[in-house]
Amino acid sequence: MDWYLEADDRAGATELRHEFRSYLERHSDAASDVDLATLAFAELVNNAIEHADGPVWISVDWTADQPLLAVHDMGQAFDLASVSMPAPQAVRGRGLAISADIASRLEVAAKAGGGARVEALLPAYRPQQVDLDPPRRSVNVLPHLDEAGAEGFERESFLRALVVQLAQGLELTQGPLVAEAAIAQVGTDVGGQMEAEYRASIGAGAGNLTPEEAAECYVRLKKAIDGDFYVIEADGDRIVLANRRCPFGEAVLRAPALCRMTSSVFGGIAARNFGEATVVLEERIAVGDPQCRVVVYLGPQPEIDHGHMYKAPQG
């Protein structure tokens, strides 16, 4: 799941904390510490809101047992080793130290185009069954009001909102396992049709694509929707691509969940040709990076504990 907050949007950060806690309460098992996970989430988001001079992007990847929180901002990068608990009389400055104590893992990295990415593995665990309690959701409603023209919202804004809300609504109401399965199915279906068109264009037979052909297929389909992807490497282990221009333009900054659609299409094509695939979105224009960097790992990847994972359809 992905969210976007404007600079210094403290009210939005508070509402997002409530939304995240509600999400954990619906979809965590009894071993989870919802209070501590929510506290770490709030501290890291508030820290970014307070210190970053610009927007903040928040994402939660719950493909492994524990949710991995990532907070991106355009503020000054910092060294986690320098973070410590302030003096008792200090009014502020405890957020990172508290989060480091709560999280199973806390890491900070400088973003390629400036700013920082903070990742925290939170003390919550996926449920054994689906909970269908009504979700709380009032943050990051799409499309954004300033996208409207003289006659209201245009088709692209509506379709983008529809795709994002369907994907995130499914995850909110039925949990990450169900959402992942549904999105993977969408990627398999849509990617399959795009792959079929590519095969026809090069006269390919029924056999599996090579890594180089799969990479060319990715670039072709993204170019068709005005993306600017190019291949960095393609071999038997992985395909690495970068993108200089998002097809959704500046609007993607307010809708970072759209990156999941790219992941599902790429992952679906790779899984069909290599049995399994894991897609890792290392850099994203949608969260303030200067370009996208997408790594598609081919075949089983037991050592990768986060990312979007896909398997070839059976039968």
In short:
With 315 residues, this protein is of the alpha+beta class. It is built from 6 helices and 10 strands. α1 packs antiparallel against α2 (34-51) and α2 (34-51) packs antiparallel against α3 (95-102).
- Rg, alpha carbons: 20 Å
Low-confidence stretches: none
What proportion of the residues form beta strands (DSSP E)?
15-25%
Fraction of helical residues: 25-40%
Biggest sheet record: 5 strands, antiparallel
Mean pLDDT over the residues: 85
Strand order of the largest sheet: 1-2-3-5-4
The computed structural class is: alpha+beta
Task: State the shape.
Answer: globular
Helix count?
A: 6
Number of strands: 10
Spatial separation of the terminal alpha carbons? 30 Å
Q: Which series of helices and strands comes N to C?
A: EHHEEHEEHHEEHEEE
Helix and strand layout, with pairings?
Blueprint (H helix, E strand, L loop, with lengths): L1 E4 L4 H18 L6 H18 L4 E6 L6 E6 L21 H8 L2 E6 L5 E6 L33 H48 L8 H14 L4 E6 L3 E6 L15 H16 L1 E8 L8 E7 L9 E4 L4
Antiparallel strand pairs: 1-2, 2-3, 3-5, 4-5, 6-7, 7-9, 8-9, 8-10
Please give a structural write-up.
By secondary structure, this protein is an alpha+beta fold. Helices cover 39% and strands 19% of the residues. Strands 1-2-3-5-4 form a five-stranded antiparallel β-sheet, covered by helices on one side. α1 runs antiparallel to α2 and α2 packs antiparallel against α3. The chain is globular.
